[in-house]
Amino acid sequence: MSPCPSPDPAPGAAGDRVAAVLDHLFRNEAGRLVAILTRRFGTENLQLAEDVVQDALVRAVETWPFTGVPDNPTAWILRSACNRAVDDRRRARVWHGKQPLLLPLVEDILVRGAPADGPRFEDEVKDSQLRMMFVCCHPELPEESQVALILKVLCGFGEREIATAFLTTEAAVAKRLARARRFLREARVGTELPPGDQLAPRLESVRKAIYLLFNEGYKASQGPTLLRQDLCDAAVRLGGMLAGGPFPDAGPTHALLALLCFNMARMPARVDPDGTVFTLGRQDRGRWDRGLIGRGVQHLAASAGAPELGRYHLEAGIAACHTLAASEEETDWEGILDLYDLLMQVTPSPVVALNRAVAVAKVRGPEAGLEALETMEGKNTLRNYHLMDAVAGHLLMEAGERSAAAIRFHRAWDLATLDAERELLRRSIVEAERP
Amino acid sequence: MPNPEKSQFLLVFRQAELPVTPSPEEMQKIFGKWMEWVAQMKAEGRYLGGNRLYFTGAVIRGSAVTDGPYTEAKETLSGYILITADSPDEALRIGKQCPGIAWGTSVEVRTIEPLPIT
Predict the structure, then answer these.
(1) pTM confidence score
(2) Which of A113, A243, B34, B37 is spaced 20 to 30 Å from A289 by Cα?
(3) What does DSSP assign to residue B83?
(4) Where are the domains of chain A?
(5) How many angstroms separate the CA of residue B10 from the nearest CA in chain A?
(6) Which residues of B touch A14 (CB under 8 A)?
């Protein structure tokens, strides 16, 4: 254990420094420890692992201010959790009467406590987290439960935070998690990595969940900015862990990571401090995060050589075209359109078709774009999607049909829910209705 | 450095059941406040020491030894610190700043009775 850092003369500054050094420490530790303990205790004891870790984290909150933060917080919390389990009379409550079954495991952790300080322990943490990813993304769990479970179990998010991110209630999240835990228990889902013949589809489930998790954060339409940023960070972190896993073909995972990095790189320029949303063409490209763009390029390079081009390769390619262009005008729209054409073959969807129509307009003119919108499949499913009308409005403006554009912008305004987006549309309406 | 001339006070923490379960991120915030509180006391030279206690222990009463603390007890003795302050009022003011109070910790502030000058 390290001695307490000498107190800073200005307490405010000390607090800031602690916050900077230990950014998300508790959340990260929660994710690491629940993974280790669930692997040791089995998924049927997931709730128990969560409770024990919770309990030990509270202890850390109250102890570390006096002792200083230990060099290896994970080992400290793990030992604290196990000590409590063995010694504490309150364990009867926390441990739901399971001590006889689990105490030998706990004592084993305590006796073999020393390895918790070594590199092998870090390997165990990583391996446990990887296994938990597959547990959380079990294909028989609904996708929304997978994402909630990942956030709670692997990323240390609280139920309140998950509820805020998903625009739902804490009770609904708790219920969803409880159902998921019950499924894991009743289906006796193990923590071993999927065997060879099941690996590919299971990997795909994990990637899909990471993708959904990222999109929850990336959506500009909901939740506090910081929380959304945290969701995106979590998705990138999990993607990185998955890419580092012992699997034969990491290509699609790298492609997914490239996509996430490119999109995240543009986040700083999407909204300004007073909440105004900027469309891609109006963003200040100088505010894009160069480091993340670089990481995106690296992952895109690492994704090459996969046997086939999947959706993540194509989407990452599109994101790369946007993000690497020096300006909207210099964007390789033909390349983007080609990629959208391929994407429509791999994962056709109305939203992909809508985006493709924008690329069509850039390459062949606004009339062609409107034609693509008019003839796209599944148009009806997007009839209450404000971006459908917003895109149509912009294409009509470009085609010089201002009154028709105004009608579409009005409709988009009615459908949009976020103030920032409404503001953007209000300006478009003013523009379209200017005499 | 702590001034031994000043009066000393014992701040005793008792931990109740947490009213709501804080998320790790909320704990991070509470932790930051605890760190600030302790750092402030150290910066002012009034922090003499302190410890957290395990929840386990034993109580000796007469010839009987019982396990303690008790699960039935609403609050469990969970730690203490020793500080210096100019007056009981000042010690109370400092005690009130304990961040644990918001999460159900109670703080008992007691004046250490000085040894009589001989």
Answers:
(1) 0.81
(2) A243
(3) E
(4) 1-135, 332-383, 384-435
(5) 15
(6) 35-36, 39, 43
**DSSP code at position A7:** P
Task: Specify whether the CB–CB gap between A289 and A239 falls below 8 A.
Answer: no
Which residues in chain B are contacts of A65 at CB distance < 8 A? 31, 34-35, 37-38
Chain B residue nearest residue A93, CA to CA = B71
Contacts of residue A227, Cβ cutoff 8 Å, sequence gap at least 6:
A161, A164, A165, A217
Sorted by where each begins, the domain ranges of chain B are 7-53+74-111
d(C-alpha A149, C-alpha A129), whole Å:
13
List the 65-94 stretch of B: residues with Cβ below 8 A of A.
Answer: 67, 69-71, 78-79, 81
- Mean pLDDT, consecutive 10-residue stretches, chain A (435 aa), reads 36 44 82 90 88 86 84 84 64 58 67 60 88 95 94 93 86 96 94 89 93 85 73 93 90 96 91 74 90 95 83 94 90 95 93 94 96 90 89 95 95 86 90 90
Q: CA geometry: angle at A86 spanning A84 and A90, to 5°? A: 55
A-contacting residues of B 4-43, CB under 8 Å? 13, 15, 18, 21-28, 30-40, 42-43
Residue range B7-53+74-111, CATH number: 3.30.70.1060
Do the chains contact at A66 and B71, CB–CB below 8 Å? no
Q: Alpha helix (H) ranges present in A68-188?
A: 73-87, 91-94, 99-111, 119-136, 143-149, 159-165, 170-186
Taking the alpha carbons at both ends of chain B, their separation in whole angstroms is: 26
